Amino acid sequence: MDKNINLTEQLKHYFGFDTFKGDQEAIIRNVLSGNDTFVLMPTGGGKSLCYQLPALIMDGTAIVISPLIALMKNQVDAIRQVSADDGIAHFMNSSLNRSALDQVKADVLSGRTKLLYVAPESLTKDENIDFLRQVNISFYAVDEAHCISEWGHDFRPEYRRIRPIINEIGQSPVIALTATATDKVRSDIKKNLGMMEATEFVSSFNRPNLYYEVRPKTKEIDKDIIKFIRQNAGKSGIIYCLSRKKVEELAEVLRANDINARAYHAGMDTPTRTQTQDDFVMDEIDVIVATIAFGMGIDKPDVRFVIHYDIPKSLEGYYQETGRAGRDGGEGKCIAFYTYKDLQKLEKFMEGKPVAEQDIGRQLLQETAAYAETSVCRRRVLLHYFGEEYNQENCHNCDNCLHPKSKVEAMDDLKKALEVVAAVKENFKVNHIIDVITGNPTEEVIAHKHDDLDCFGCGDQKDARHWNTILRQAILGGFIYKEVENYGLLKLTDEGRKFMKKPTSFLITEDNDFEYDGGEPTGGTAAVDDELLAILRDLRKKVARDKGIPPYVIFQDASLEAMATVYPVTIEELKTIPGVGEGKAKRYGKAFCELIYRHCEENEIERPEDLRVRTVANKSKNKVSIIQSIDRKVDLKDIARSKGLDFDELLDELDAIVDSGTKLDISYYINTVLDADQVEDIFEYFRESETDDIDDALDELGEDYDEEQIRLVRIKFISEMGN
């Protein structure tokens, strides 16, 4: 290959650009020289050009290994636009019929095809290996290379077989590309692809145009999201949820509130997914509600916001997904909703997996929690995670920098923390260090005789949360680091040892407090009309007294707050309020509607139709089917399995059914997991309690019962006492 080739001319000729971005030219020259190349470039940095242009210039066909069929189609369509010959680019995957596949092979063998996109699964088929042995291959490009690593956010086992297959087909240079990879993932990719000597090109991870914010996830999350979208009307956005069920529910709620939204997840058929993706790119849809199956390789530069309904499983996943906002350099708002409960749920999902996988998963979750709870610059935390230091005090484009907390001196506390890390021989993780500092004699602490250390309990006057903050900010400050290969053992740095000998000022900001899960963020209630809310509460109390049941059994607080926001004055309108179904509307609704009507008349209130957050009625089929199964006394675990739900999700469904006024008798199941005295114990708690909040119940009963048992009896209680 001619080293003096004018790449700028080639760029202009094929793609119409006058200049390269960042490292693109250097990367392309490295590929043209026949060297293995590793490219780490954030979303929007122009990764695909790094293999597309050399493929067009070089002799032979470049094999591009890519994980998504939809992505291949988009890329092939894009490349065909730069040439008069459609045969210049093809893909080879399971979506092709026999005659289409024969045409692809003929074009490749004739030399017309410069780029052949192949899914890793297709690459491993014997007939494809035999075919590719006959092809003059210019190089292999492994796109989305993080899929190789078990430490990555999107691990795919079939990616581990790429190198052996390349060895079978025939040696050619390899270029591996990814938008997100920590040092650990990077080394994993190179090792697995047998390219340890590859030239590395690492671009900055900083996306200055992206705004990062974490909000507490409360019962009002749907309302918060609707309000946010209305404030950003007409702009393109993506909302990520962890479960397919939540994706469909939220998309339906948004449509009910006149937002042009569509659901997308891997459980949908291919034509529907493709159409949804195309409609989004063509601005036929404003908002996509999706699982992480959506977005990889989507070439839409003007996504203006990315919302995480659930906190992701890893910071790499989060960075990749938020990276789809503002790819044109314009506005990009990244909002994540966080509650610690979500992390506990994700941990639960890992049960039953191999221990090593669980360890990796927990460590990744801890990093996500650290990002969500921190009060320091979010950009700094994200970049540090990817091994890049961000030294500015204030990025002016994240919630923590725009609303900074005051700093406090923590020199003495840092010294204590570092001394404990040293005392346990730098051989333990964060939680163990905190247990030693706070004097918590856990089994592990006692087994290692760390309760005998002089420093045991040296920080017992402060809680674990405070010490977590100290350790997190000590990592950011470069005093300690986590040894990733050993699942997060804390090690002292030279800077840390220096500090222990000669301490200097160490200012910290306390972490944000996300402990108010399920309630309201600080700053009062979400209801618009506080006066009406107070009157509704009085009425609820009166009805409850007459019936001899706790007020929350009549209507939950969230339902009253919604009433005081949207002013329902008919039974039909009342049924659209969250937590008010047919049964409750009929039983209690008349008095509440009359009270709201009188309040509106007396105060000349115009009911704000535009403020109404319309909920979607429970999918009657699913609901009726669950009720019928319970009537037939089907085991609840079997019902969950048949509906494709986790047991927690089934309990959510049962909560919604009884909270909206329908009677359910699940005693037959409860009697298999609790004895009569235990049921009576929990039942009595709810009868006497002023709240049915599960966390409060756990605080009171938690030593004797777990969350699942308490939730089951709560369903029985609401059903028997209120319905």
What does this entry look like structurally?
With 723 residues, the protein is of the alpha/beta class. The chain has five domains: 7-202, Rossmann fold; 210-350, P-loop containing nucleotide triphosphate hydrolases (Rossmann fold, 3-Layer(aba) Sandwich); 408-508, Orthogonal Bundle (Arc Repressor Mutant, subunit A); 530-611, DNA polymerase, domain 1 (Orthogonal Bundle); 620-722, Arc Repressor Mutant, subunit A, CATH 1.10.10.1390. Helices cover 48% and strands 11% of the residues. The chain is built from 34 helices and 17 strands. It has a seven-stranded parallel beta sheet with strand order 3-4-2-5-6-1-7, with helices on both faces. The chain has a six-stranded parallel beta sheet with strand order 8-13-12-9-11-10, with helices on both faces. Strands 14-17 form a two-stranded antiparallel sheet. β12, α13 and β13 (332-338) form a beta-alpha-beta unit. α2 crosses α3, α14 runs antiparallel to α15 (355-373) and α19 packs across α21 (464-476). It is globular. The N and C termini lie far apart (80 Å). The relative contact order is 0.06.
